[in-house]
Amino acid sequence: MCHDAKTDRALRAISPDEVPEGHWFNLIRRYSTSIPMYITYGKRVHRIANNPQVAQVYDVVGNFTRMAQPGNYLADVVPFLRMLPDILAPWRSEAGAKHRWEMELYGGLLEEEKDALNYQGTVRDSFLNTYLRARAAAGYATAHGNGTTTDMWMRDTMLAYTAGTILEAGSDTTATAILAFVLYMLNYPAVMKRAREEIDSVVGSERMPNFDDEDNLPYVVACVQELLRCHPPIIMGIPHRADEDDDYKGYHIPKGTTVIGNLWSIHMDPVKYPDPTNFNPERFLGESMRRTGGPDAQAQVTARYAFGFGRRFCAGKDVGEASLFIVCSRILWGLDFFAPMDPEIGKARIPNPWDEEATWTKGFIAVPKPFSVQFSPRTEKHAEIIRLSFEELQDEWKDAGLPGDER
Ligand code: HEM
């Protein structure tokens, strides 16, 4: 297969200054919903995004996670402040402005999808494309405005926002977990070694791991579970509101109370998770802890708080876990990575994942702060298979009528 010198150079050791826009690295990003992949080198931070719209999604999601953080605004905890008029409630006008900005993005994506469907006749199995076709078949080729039609078809604004919500719910969460995975692997090289040995013995070097390998890679699956336990991406969960009076363990919870389930704290319970500040995938090993089945229902439940609980439990859990499994197993399969030497301290600087203040951002989704990491393919054979997979993926995107990565 032919590939250019630029890609070759980047394959040997990715220095962020050299990551080409259409680099195979984007393959990893493509495999997740979208990964805001930050790479730092020295003091410089680089964000890999191959088109402005992707960058805009990152910004919108970043904005969403900041504003949605429980307790970020005084009005979250002092209900009286919510009664203030707009002029005295700057957080409300900020939310309004950001909301309009979000709608520009989501509305724009909806318009693009409509154009693709109506003018190019592009048929895809995507949420928007499928919905627009079904809505048109029901007699609503156009349905401007917000809310629903009398027979409950979503109008454009609601449809755009619904699609955007799925994008937001699934992208930053998965992306954060992948960044955290790299961080934990740098801190726990023995875990990384064992996971890689498992992958090598099951998958070999002739192909990448795929979803069918999951049952034969219990340690890798356990690593993903342990990752979600150690640092659930939505660290405090999503606030819920009690819709009736309740009494729980001696606490009276009046109707309308905001209830926050602190997922991180639940996962640090030393009774359920002995030695909780240790990244130990073994606690999720064994038939009873496998995500896809097993007899011990309680064990399965305890591994799942990262996705919330109850009626509003994450709708995309299976997609999220599958993305993490495939991305993490492929990173381990194909790439060597390490923290480069920091000349300032004369050794590699590896952030401590247990130091919340120093290592993680604040916000409703806690993301590792940018850290230096250098990737290189494990062997030329691994590199070749990654390149091939990248090319195949480009063809798939092309067949679906979507723009590919620049080469
Ligand atoms: C590692 C990845 C993910 C994590 C850690 C995660 C976590 C969560 C959490 C904690 C909630 C709130 C649950 C509650 O209120 O109790 C939630 C809700 C939700 N998630 Fe996820 N999520 C992930 C991936 C995804 C993906 C990939 C999608 C879509 C494809 C998705 C779609 C949703 C939706 C639509 C909701 C709202 C559900 C509702 O309110 O009824 N999530 N997620």
What does this molecule look like?
The two termini are 14 Å apart. Strands 1-2 form a two-stranded antiparallel sheet. It has a two-stranded antiparallel sheet with strand order 3-6. By secondary structure, it is mainly alpha-helical. The N terminus is likely disordered. The chain has a domain of 174 residues. A hairpin with a 2-residue loop joins strand 4 and strand 5. It contains 14 helices and ten strands. Helix 5 crosses helix 6 and helix 5 packs across helix 7. The structure holds protoporphyrin IX containing FE (HEM). Protoporphyrin IX containing FE binds next to helix 7 and helix 12.
What Rg do the Cα atoms give? 23 Å
The strands making up the biggest β-sheet line up spatially as 1-2
Distance between the termini: 14 Å
Question: What's the shape?
Answer: globular
Q: Largest beta sheet, briefly? A: 2 strands, antiparallel
Helix coverage percent? 40-55%
